[in-house]
Every structure is written in structure tokens, then in C-alpha cells.
Amino acid sequence: MYKRSQYNVLLRRLAEKRKFIQVIMGPRQVGKSTLMKQVVTSQDIPFLFYTADAVPASGFAWISNCWEAARVKIKVEYLPQLILIIDEIQKISGWSEIVKKEWDSDTFNDVPLKVILLGSSRVMLDKGLADSLQGRYERIILSHWSFAEMRDAFGFSLEEFVYYGAYPGAAPFVKDRDRWQNYISGSIVDATINKDILVNENIGKPALLRQTFELSSAYSGQELALNKMIGQMNDAGNTTTITGYLNLLSQAGLVAGLNKYAKDMARRKNSVPKHQVFNSALKTLYVDKSLDETLSDRTLWGRMFESAIGAHIMSYAYAGDYKVYYWRVGTGCEVDYILEKKGKLIAIEVKGNDDKWNKGLSEFKKLFHPKLSLVVGNGGIGAEDFLCANPSELF
């Protein structure tokens, strides 16, 4: 079975003396549980695994029960150490306070219990970690799979990666479009919206949230004003509501609305958003053409290609601690993606085979003096090379 680079990181940390809780976080279906299983079954430390998926949000005592079961196992079996694994822990209200209490108790009493926590709701995990567990944890962040990983694990070509995206669980179904579509829709979209967003947030218009996702995904790689989005929706809403829903969808690792880059923060916030999925599969879900038909439609393929580059950039943004924008002035003067980290800028222009050169990159360089500017695709760095690299390393 294919092992991601984080495998060695977690394996090495578990081999160390007990010091930190290991927190594995990332969007749904990127391999968090698989990574954990690969590691704990490859070494000799016993483990206990629990999942909070079906536990009521108010069941905070459940965490203490899991912890106590692990302590009893250590004591009864005279174990020198044990690994306690709790999946989707963020679903339990007040989880971080309980974890802090139990972890600190074990530290004081020298209980040799190592702990791994997993979760798909980044915001809920981050809030709990920041509130109660400072200095007690290390994060392992799993992004969506890169082209190199999908190529090495499943033999994907560049065209297949752009079209089918980077969900490993969907890879076996690419020859059956209906089955592939059902997997992406059910295991990814429905599960994320229903189990991560609607459960954790007070959503007044669930149907509008779903429509926001669908439109934003379909227009990935393109600019679409919020008032125009509202005009295409069946349910009534306003731009403030749509903006809030886009933020939630972005935090869940589905789709984001990128602001136009400007030095003035107010101008960024008031700009027309450029929509961008985190995984190409989410755009393809709303494309009614096969891979061969898409390749024959050069306009559509150009949009898919740009969206795939953007998805790769977005996928690493959280772990790489950089922000993503686009830039445009007038007609035909634009830069597809602007990366910003600690005051440093990276300007990236995407060029498909039929794209014509525009002056956007040179104009942006004159105005903002980025640390680096580059073209991905025709006339620049190859798409395969870019999609195999971590964009945060450009800084």
C-alpha cells in the first residue's frame, strides 16, 4: 500500500519518548485514517482505536471513558506503553478541555500512554488546540494528494489528474464515470457538508449552502460576482450570506472565493471573487463531458487546466501558511494566482497550450516587486514539475 511522506514523520514521533499529543488533520478522504493504521500496525506498540462519529456532541464523558479503558489495559496487561487513537474528536463539545485534563493527569502520574487525535474539521480542531492544548501537541497536516502521489500510487497521467483530481478512494472508479461521480458526491461532498459543516455551524439555509458549493465549483478558475451567483440560485439569499458560506466551504477544504490582490485590505474584501476548488474532482463533478471530450474542447480544457493548478496551490496553503489571491487590472492584464506569506509575494501565471501571452505578469512585477514570478505551462515550468512540488517551497 502506498505510503505518503507523513508516514515516516508519525512513525518517528511515536518511536520517541512520550512528549506530545499527535494531531492528524486534513479534509475528508485524503488518507488520515489510512496513515494512522499504516503506522500503528507497522510497529510493536499496542493500540486502542475509537471514533466519535456516532457519539452525541454532548457526550464529553465518552472521551474520559476511552482514556480510562486505555489506562486499565496498560495496568492489567503490564504494558510498557500504549497508543490511544480517537478519530473525529472535534465532534464532541468541549473535547479539548477533557483531553487536557486526561493528558495532564497521565503526565503527572507517569502513565505511558501516547495519544493520536484525528479530525477533518480544521476550524473546530484549531479552536480546541488553541484554547486548551498549547504546548501539548504537534500537528501533522495532510493536504490533498499531489500529481506525483496519484501518478506513483495509481498510474495517473497528467490529463487524468487534471480531470479526475486527487482523491485516492475515487481512483479505482475512473473507468466508470457514474460510480466515480457517486463516490465524489456521496463520500466527499455530502459527507463534508452534512457531517462537518451543518453539524458544527448554525446554517439558516442548507439548500443555499449546497447551491453555493455547486456554483462555485462549476466556475472554479473563473471570476463570478456574488450578485450574479444569487441570480442563478433557486433559494433567496444575499451577498453577506453567500460570503459566509464560501468561508465555511473553504475551511472544510472544498472550494474558496479568492479575493483580488491589493495593498488596501478593503479593496481585497470588496473584490469580485475568483472561485477555486481544492481538488479538481470537485469541478469535474459539474462537467458533463468525458475526459476525451474535454480534451477536444480547448476552451474547457484550458479552464480545467488552470483550475487544477489553482487546486494544487490551495491544497498546500494552510500547511504552508500562505494566502492566495488573483490580480487583474482592466482587460487582458491579469495574473492567475498571487501567493503571499509574511510580506513576500509569488506571482503565478497559468498557460495552457493555446493560451496567448498577456502583459499581466510584467505589470504586476513593476507594481508590486514579487519575490518570484513564474509561468506554469506553455513557455514556462512544466505542469508536471509544478504539480509535483510543494508551492510553499517557492518562498
**Which percent range describes the beta-strand content?**
15-25%
Number of strands: 11
* Oligomeric grouping of the chains: single chain
Strand-pairing-aware structural class: alpha/beta
> What does the radius of gyration come to?
22 Å
The low-confidence parts are none
Order of helices and strands: HEHEHEHEHEHHHHHHEHEHHHHEEEHEH
How confident overall, as mean pLDDT? 91
How many separate helices? 18
Shape: globular
The neighbouring-strand order within the major sheet is 2-3-4-1-5
Tell me the count of domains. 2
The N- and C-terminal alpha carbons lie at a distance of 33 Å
For the sheet with most strands, the description reads: 5 strands, parallel
Q: What fraction, in percent, of the residue positions are helical?
A: 40-55%
Describe this structure in words.
The chain has 395 residues and is of the alpha/beta class. The protein has two domains: 136 residues, Rossmann fold (3-Layer(aba) Sandwich); 248 residues, no CATH class. The strands form three sheets. Strands 2-3-4-1-5 form a five-stranded parallel β-sheet, with helices on both faces. The chain has a four-stranded mixed β-sheet with strand order 8-9-10-11, with helices on both faces. A two-stranded antiparallel ribbon has the order 6-7. Helix 4 links the parallel strand 3 and strand 4. Helix 1 packs across helix 2 and helix 3 packs parallel to helix 4. The chain is globular, with a radius of gyration of 22 Å. The mean pLDDT is 91.
